[in-house]
Every structure is written in C-alpha cells, then in structure tokens.
Amino acid sequence: MDFSDLQNALIRGDHLATAEQTRLLLAAGAGPVDILERGLLPGMQVIGKRFRDGEIFLPEVLVCARAMKSAMALLDPLLAAGSYAAKGKVVLGTVKGDVHDIGKNLVGVMLRGAGYQVVDIGTGCNADKFVQAVRDHRPDVVGLSALLSTTMTYMKTVIDAIRAAGETLPVIVGGAPVNAEFAESIGAAGSARTAGEAVELVSRLVGRTD
Ligand code: B1M
Questions:
Q1: Which tens digit of pLDDT belongs to each residue from 47-67?
Q2: Which of 49, 70, 112, 203 could lock onto 19 through a cystine, CB 3.0 to 4.6 A?
C-alpha cells in the first residue's frame, strides 16, 4: 500500500486532501495503525523537523496540525476500538486563570503525531481537575501549559496537589514565560520551549525514543 499521497497532503497542510486520502486508504483496506504509522507520523516528523530547523513557521504548522486533526477524526474511533499500543499517555492542560490554548493544542498534536495518547483536559484547569485526570486516566506524564506570568505560578500549586494526592509521576511545564530554572524551582520534571522539545522531553521521561 502506498502512503505517499497521504503524507504529501499532510505536509502541504491540505486538510481536505488529508481526510480524503485517509478515507481512500481505509476503503482500500489499510488499517488505522498502518495509516498512522506509515502515513501520518512520518509526515508529522517532517513537519516537526522543518519547524525546529526554522524552515517553516507557526502558520504552516497550524495548517498542518489542522490537516492531522482531519485524519485523526477518522482514525481515533478505529484506534480506540482496536489494540493500538500508544508509546505512552499524557494528560495535558492549561492552568487556572489562563485561556491560551494554541500552544498547548500544538503540543498535543505533535505528541499524538509522535505516537502518544493525549488526554487534553482544556484550559483554566485547577489543581483538582489535574489530580482527578491523573486518577481517571493513569497517564505516564502530566503536562502543564501557561502563557501568563501571573498564571505560571499556579503550576506549583498543581504539582504540590498531585504530590499531596500520593502521585509520583513526572510533571512537565511549558509556555512562553516558563524556563528550566523555574521548572526546577517548582519540582517539575522538566520544561520545553517548543512542541518539538515537549515531544523529546516526554520521550526521554517515558523512555521511548523510537
Ligand atoms: Co494573550 N497574552 N492575553 N491572548 N496572547 C500573550 C501571552 C502576551 C505575551 C501578549 C503581550 O502582552 N505581548 C501577554 C502575556 C504577558 C505576560 O504575562 N508575560 C498576554 C496577555 C497579557 C493577555 C491578556 C491578559 C490580555 C488582556 O485581556 N488584557 C488575556 C489573558 C486571558 C487569560 O488567559 N486569562 C489574553 C488573551 C488572549 C486571547 C484570548 C486574545 C488570545 C488567546 C487565544 C487562544 O489561545 N485560544 C491571546 C493570544 C493569541 C496571545 C498571543 C498574541 C499569542 C499566543 C500564542 O498562541 N502563540 C501572545 C503574544 C505572543 O506570544 N506573541 C499573548 C502561539 C503559540 C503556538 O505559542 O503559546 O508560546 P505558545 O506555545 C509554544 C511554546 O510556548 C510551547 O510550545 C508551543 C509551540 O511551540 N508550549 C509548551 C506551550 N505550552 C507548552 C506546554 C509544554 C511544553 C511546551 O509542556 C506541557
């Protein structure tokens, strides 16, 4: 089976063609795992690398992210019904008081693109919501996003609440005002400046780099 038309549609950021190619492959008998692993993930790797190397910029990545979403809308129910083994599970949310979600969504798309299962609990999430999500979904990693210098301080409250609930899993942080020093000072397992870095960090923490 040839996945190059799907890959090219994704890399072009053509969401209609990406969905159409996904439908055609499914109709031709390709499984959702093959479509994901042989079509979409290599395509997202190309996009991630170009973004990291400064060859493409945010608008192009967002367009590709929308294309990826159009394919995942078709594949998600099939993958959920099957036995697709994700590399790991990440609970992702923007912290209380903060509505910025473009960066968080991009991190989610890139993580999904790299083979992780992502449970996105949205924006304005308080500590209880994160603790409940950890209990409900048993993730390998929790990711906190904040874009405001006034909301990043709440990340410590979330980490403290997760620890107080007896959970020891790694919590990572990201968003424009966040840096490595801040991450260390609040007990985070690490920070990432970009969605690509977030994927690398999660891969290191979960121990899967393939
Ligand atoms: Co607001 N906003 N905003 N805003 N906004 C900023 C962040 C600001 C820097 C603008 C400025 O003043 N120059 C400023 C913050 C200043 C500060 O605190 N240091 C600001 C402000 C002040 C505000 C309001 C307070 C404005 C007001 O109402 N007076 C208000 C606050 C609302 C609230 O949250 N309570 C507000 C509102 C808004 C909008 C609603 C209009 C809109 C958000 C829409 C949305 O997200 N749905 C908005 C926007 C769009 C921005 C700017 C222009 C763009 C942010 C963005 O999406 N960037 C922003 C200025 C700027 O950054 N140039 C600004 C693109 C995105 C892909 O990048 O989010 O950085 P980013 O994500 C990156 C990395 O940070 C990282 O990876 C992503 C991809 O590479 N990353 C992670 C993010 N999360 C991560 C998590 C990880 C790892 C990496 O691990 C878990």
A1: 988 988 999 998 998 899 899
A2: 70
